[in-house]
Amino acid sequence: xxxxxxxxxxxxxxxxxxxxxxxxxxxxxxxxxxxxxxxxxxxxxxxxxxxxxxxxxxxxxxxxxxxxxxxxxxxxxxxxxxxxxxxxxxxxxxxxxxxxxxxxxxxxxxxxxxxxxxxxxxxxxxxxxxxxxxxxxxxxxxxxxxxxxxxxxxxxxxxxxxxxxxxxxxxxxxxxxxxxxxxxxxxxxxxxxxxxxxxxxxxxxxxxxxxxxxxxxxxxxxxxxxxxxxxxxxxxxxxxxxxx
Length: 244
What we know:
Blueprint: H1 2-12, H2 23-55, H3 59-66, H4 68-71, H5 74-83, H6 99-123, H7 127-135, H8 140-170, H9 183-191, H10 195-222, E1 229-230, E2 237-238
Antiparallel strand pairs: 1-2
Helix pairs in contact: 1-10, 2-6, 2-8, 3-6, 5-6, 6-8, 7-8, 8-10, 9-10
């Protein structure tokens, strides 16, 4: 029970939250790292996945290439990147030591859920809706923009939501290469046998992960068209229509 009490005292001590290197400062660093890595993954993976889903081919190769990120541990990838000549361990602006290597590793980790969900989302838009749009004289771009993308958005958002939470939780590995973020609190606490400090850092990471999950869930609900209802038993879409 003493560890629990010590952890509570650590979390409720304002001195541990403020100032340079305080918990709030490190939290901001990890948020910046996570959001930037997610943005990189979206810029790279989202257009490719959406276009391949629209074409209906090439997705198998893209998904399997992206899934390499699932098989290779992110820390192992980071270790390889920091010992290479590029990106190495050099500081990278506000991302700190080995910042570029950490961003690359986290962005690659975020790609699989984004690519898989986005490809499947567009690929599984009902064929009859695509035919109806084609019969109405819509161009390929109009069919994608006005029919496929609105129906795909909920599943696309689900992939982004999963990637966000995963990247946030994994960003603590930056501390292993003296990078920024709350991982520094965790590693320093356990390294110095200050278990209250290490557990406090882990609890803050978990709490923020839950908050991000909640915000992302609200975002996913916001982009779900009102006329699209997902059947939880069949996994399909009901009530969808084509707006001329």
